[in-house]
Amino acid sequence: MNHLYKAVLLLFCVATTEQVLAQKTKKDTLKLDTINIKDRKPGHLPDISGANIFAGKRTLTVNPDAGKANLANNNARMLFATVPGVNVWEMDGAGLQVNIGTRGTDTHRSIETNLRQNGYNTNSDIFGYPEDHYTPPFEGIDQVQIVRGSAALQFGSQFGGMVNYKMKEGDSTRIFGGESNQTVGSNRFFNSYTAIGGKSGKWSYYAYFDDRKGDGWRPDAAFDYQAFYANVKYQFNEKGSIALQFSRMDYVQQIAGGLTDALFEANNRQSTRSRNFFNPEINIPALIFNYRFDRHTKLEITSHALIGQRNSVQFIANANVADTVNKATNSYNPRQVDRDYYYGYTTEARLLHTYQLGDLQSAFTAGMRIFGEHTQRRQKGVGDTGSDFDLDVVKPYGIDLRLHTFNYAAFVENMFRITKDFSITPGFRFEDIQTNMTGAIVNQTFPVAYKQTRNFPLFGTGLQYQLTDNSQLYGNISQAYRPYIYANVTPADQLGVIDPNLKDTRGYSADLGYRGNAGTVLKYDLDAYYSYYGNRVGTLTETNSSNQNYLYTTNIGNVVAKGIETYLSVSLLRSFDEGASGDIQLFNSLSYDHARYTTGSISQGATNISLVGHYAEGTPDWIERAGLTYFDRHISSTLQYSYVSKTFSDANNTVFNPTGASGVVPAYHVFDWAFNYSFLGNYHLIANVNNLFNAKYFTRRINMYPGPGILPADRRTFNLGFGVKF
């Protein structure tokens, strides 16, 4: 209830403070180009940006800053601190994967979120296998752009909305420039980020290379990560440009394995696996064409490919089964080798046209997407008995599949400006998804064939009313859709069972919000939402004939997630001195998410047990992130507090499972600190401490890679860095 009081108090403070400061708004407003990067507060996207319409939608932006987040190790908990409701699965302390979910969606590799870089998708297969293996270094990101829930109808059908990483660009005032940041930290952490960029005539460019490695906080958790990005742009005239981009990311990570509850309580740092490894390799070439026919009409075309692999070699067993030398063979047991190969392409075209409707300007946007992807999936290969990273197999793969997806989609949205302050933006999207699978399973003794075509429309509408120059009301409702995926057709290991009669998930999401600012002193965004998931796919803990627990994936029932998301920041010094060169800013990002099953049951013997009222898996009721930031001309520093309430790993809401693969995930509190000191114009020093007070916690239980079992979060870690701009 304390958090409920905070939400009510927050609403009261916003209403009263805005009235007090309303008369100061025009005087306090600064032009964007005069604001120091340390003063870049989170905000929302404009009504029209590029060829996209965002009016009436729940949108947010984040500007990465070394004085506010630990960018060197890609700390998602800090990067998304000002975005209410982002649930982060902390798989490791190296930031090799971004695992986020909102409003009841799955956090596993952001599988229900449409993730993009510079406008193009980075998910491996947006329908068949939408996990996102690609993660750029946060030091290379200029801005994170977020469209909540199914309001992202222009981008896809996903329940989790859209997150776009807008990458940095070179300095347009010089031919050559760059930056280099070198960071070292605990557990032999090292990160080297170097970027160059510039502009000469009609040509501009930007490129970076990031090298990150370390031992990890747990034993047997070493990692070696590299990422490369290049963007070469040619502005052939004032109307048009074309850019060629290439991104690559790969790493090898040792996996320390999951823990049971007993092992976690005894020593949460211990390792249960020393021979498990994970290795993704992702390459993304992209071509981006922009052309402005006149001041009313603009065309954007992006075409990109995703070529990559997802590889693992593991000894797979529950956490209470030790990986020891087999006395009969005097060697370790063979490991399992799993390999995916991805070959995908996507072309998206968007046209924006603004026009006069009466005396007011309205806008129309339309677009299409063509997507094709082929995945070769080879799993349950018998690997060697060694301890190094080795993907060779000594026996054929037990699963050998060819997976194909072809998709075309079209969308239309129109922003009707009814009055100068009020707009309505209806939208429509049509999806055609063709999927097929061929191959063999069960040691390649059982052939399988699957083919399905889905056609469906999605509708949405947004409303926006400008109350004052600096505040607005917005609301929207949009449909969403998620087909069941390849991973739901055949389990990758012996620890899970899949329902052969899975159905797709359909639903919708609605928002009603109020956002704005009072000069540079106060910023707020208050939102209430309602999301419906029909035939949600989830997991149940069941018991087999040998009295062993296993996780069963099926359509469990319908889920409704409803709640509030609030953000408030206050400038404490500028409240008294408008011209202060520095400031102390206090922010609070709070969400309440009541995600519960409204239908569903589980059979235990001859008894049916209702799941109505059970928590949706992995969804906390409360997420709060609050912080205090100080900055002046040279220093920026943030102390951040995070609280996440308890969650359950399955729809049964199992409290305890001796294997650790399911059960309750307790609530936790974590503090983080970031510091950045700039000097002599081009130099800066950074320092970060994560989990400042050494909290013992975990954010997830899992029945597959990288577990199974409890995955402990890192205890206290730190790093120090030096950077130069040239």
Uncertain stretches of 5 or more adjacent residues: 1-37
Biggest sheet layout: 22 strands, antiparallel, barrel
> What is the C-alpha radius of gyration, as a whole number of Å?
25 Å
3D shape: globular
SS content category: mainly beta
Q: Can you give the helix content as a percent range?
A: under 10%
> How many angstroms does the end-to-end distance come to?
52 Å
Task: Provide structural commentary.
The protein is mainly beta. It contains four helices and 41 strands. It has a 22-stranded antiparallel barrel. The protein has a five-stranded mixed beta sheet with strand order 3-8-9-6-7, with no helix packed on it. The protein has a two-stranded antiparallel sheet with strand order 1-2. A hairpin with an 8-residue loop joins strand 12 (203-214) and strand 13. The radius of gyration is 25 Å and the shape is globular. The relative contact order is 0.15. Mean pLDDT is 91; it is low at 1-37.
